[in-house]
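Sequence in, structure out.
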Amino acid sequence: MLPRWSLPLLLVVLTGCSSATRAVRLDTGHGAPIVFTPRSGAVPVELDTDDFEEAVEALAQAVRPSMRPQEAARHLFEVEPRSGSYLYEPRSHRVIPLGPGEHLEGGPPSADVELTRAYLRWCGRTARPGDCLSLLMEGPTVTGDGRYALSMALAQGVVLEEMMGAFKDMADPQAMVTAVLWTWTTYCILLAVPEPFSKGVAAVMTASLIAYVGVDTFWSLIVGFKRLVEAADRATTFDELREAGEHYGKVMGRNAARAFAMLATAAIGNTAAGLGSQVPKLPSAAQAAVQAEAQMGIRLAAVADVGTVAVSAEAVTIALAPGAVAMAARGTAGGASAKARPTVSRAWGSFSGFKKALGPAGPGREWHHIVEQTPGNAKRFGPQALHNTENIIPLDKDQHTKVSSLYSSVRYDITHSFTQTVRQWLSTQSYEVQREFGLLAIENVKKRVW
């Protein structure tokens, strides 16, 4: 018989390296990979209730949930059907079933039958009688992946209820929630195999998730889900499954759970390119863009260019097109200083050259420099670091005016100075800090925080 992977041993390997700083390797297919060190202290991007519900409601409008959500999720992520134990084949990066579970020959064990009854009673108590999470579409009892999906539902009950509220005007809100749950769970199963590897839609989702939660939190989600799998496989009662789910819920946290659910909703029935095009439009995308550059060295706007993501105990390796690499990461290649600002593929020596090439920003919009085009910045960083397609974006005129007013104001809560304007304070900072602040300013002005 083919060897089986040992989950407890893998957990020792993974958690044993938890204190080490994990590098990000950016493989563009041109020369040696760029080795990028993520900034420490990243936390999940904040997603408030209203923004989250509005986002998933809008995303769901383009989705037609499948009658067989587990099968649809497997097809989306190219996961083979499996039962019981499984093998991970490194060469083809596939999860391969090792055959039907042994218990099928003699009928379901009594513990599985009782757990299934408890699940159906739980569905009834939540006013959704029957097989409310579609866990029994492929078998008579809650086993295998169904246990993990149920644990996830118990872990994120509040987030699922928020989605139910967002989907209330759909023909079948429960079908949509179930589709999201199975998409979420099936993606996590990809993370549970040794040396997690994702491609296509899963790769774009992985990179996007890291942008929203950071490398360290993403790592804790992998390890946490492996522990959930182990606990769910051991569980003989509904309460034990609930306990496993609630423990994972604490590991994940509300903001990461919302980001996960939002991305899973966007992924349903989508392609890698389609998902990648939606991510920059999601709530708090400006903050996620900052984190994408600080945690992975890639531009969130080009996340669709991510081809594969592989995770080991030492590094996250991302294969992507060269244009997706952020300037901060390019500055670390070949031993160059991180402060160097190399010329990007579309950069100009002046703002007038940029406008001549690209024309107006659009009706009701104006071009905005994330890192301002002040004389001091032009002297320090060079004009091409300012006048390029990564640094100049279109903004609504009203929002552009408000951001400019913020920069001209004295704000002690931001600068800790009663005399300096925000612009004067910011002019002393590095390019990276100015860019992070610029993206955050756009987001906070939009939300009326500043």
